[in-house]
Amino acid sequence: MTGELHHLLLQHSLVGAGLPPQETSAAAFAAGLQRGINNPAVLPQLFEVRASHVLGALPREQVSEFLSGLLIGAEVATLSDTFAGQQAISLVAGSSLTSRYQQAFAAIGREVSAVAGDTAFQTGIRSIAYAVAN
């Protein structure tokens, strides 16, 4: 849902209105990530994102990266209370999302293991097929 929210905000809200083509920026993502981790109440920060690029504090080409970091950071900060102690965390996603979530969990001091989405799907289907056959 985080990716869907990111898309909706960029494409169908004032946060992304009138933006030029977006570019990759590790620095903008990291800045958004820290902001989201430090203050997971995203709603007020969405106004700040809009104001920042309108007033020139955030390069207009990097809004997508900052917003991605903000949303992922807030999600991970909120989830951190859900995981007891050092309970293992496994990520199942594509490679680009995996690296972003690994960075987010590392920022809050948590290690994660990663499994490619296709691999997890195939393993699950094989397990179901085996269970049905036996």
TrEMBL record:
The keyword Kinase applies. GO terms for molecular function: 2-dehydro-3-deoxygalactonokinase activity. Keywords: Kinase, Transferase. One of its GO terms (biological process) is D-galactonate catabolic process. It comes from the Bacteria. It holds the Pfam family DGOK. The keyword Transmembrane helix does not apply. This is 2-dehydro-3-deoxygalactonokinase.
